[in-house]
Amino acid sequence: MRQLVNALIAQTKITILASFQYRVQEGIQLLGLLTESVIYLVVWTTIARASGGEVGGFTVGEFASYFIAWTFVRNATTGWSPWGMEWRIRRGEFNALLLRPVHPYWTDMGDMLGGKAIQTITLVPTMALLVWAFRPEFTPVPWSLLALVPALLLAFLLRYTLMYALAVTAFWTTRVTALFEVWYAVEFFTSGRVAPLSVLPAWAQSIAGVLPFQWMFYFPLELLLGRLTQQQALQGFLMQALWLVGVIVLMRVVWRAAIRQYGAVGG
Q1: Does the structure show a pLDDT above 60 at 267?
Q2: Containing domain of residue 38, as a range?
Q3: Is residue 267 part of a domain?
Q4: What domain count does the chain have?
Q5: CB 253 within 8 A of CB 168
Q6: Does some domain include residue 162?
Q7: Residue 27 pLDDT
Q8: What percent of the chain lies above the pLDDT cut of 70?
Q9: Distance between CA atoms of 48 and 52, rounded to whole angstroms?
Q10: Residue 163 is inside which H or E element, if any?
């Protein structure tokens, strides 16, 4: 365990130092994140105004708070991209990773955490600017803000592990683009990313209720906004834990099968 923690910390530090050398790339990624959230914010606040000031239990100001908080939760819960795994396998870069004493899962996690740390430095003041521009309605709930920390951690671990298991399928195909696009389309509509789940049709909410995506995004976002009771929060933590256990088992099964299937590509 100590070896894993040390490897995780070391990779996080390496990524942070490397990010300072590629500030333009980090800025472009942040701009893309903010652009997406602002587009949703403008669309839904316009719809709310046209509907008498409220849609699905959200007022104009609450939509503003939702999508401003959205930028923070989105950054915190971003997982590993299967495209990255596919690219490394096709170029032969994954060969060396398999020879290391530490599982690539942990070093890649360190890489993700380092990137999040750098993005947060610029994200927080940018969120403050959005608050000034859009005047959100937000009433902090102390216990909910404290519960946000473990909720974000579990959400990240759940999404990261599930996406890593998906990425590992590249060991069979060396291309996972089509599979990931299906994943992305389902997650996009059932995680609360494009809109709060309460504004979606009943059938879409029913689908979201049996999938893990809302526990990776919508649940911590509602905690941040203080829209959950303590009982709802406990139920959310339970669902996150159950899904995480299941996903870890899935990851271990897929990895063991994939590593026997893997054929080195590249030099």
Answers
A1: no
A2: 2-261
A3: no
A4: 1
A5: no
A6: yes
A7: 57
A8: 84
A9: 6
A10: helix 142-168
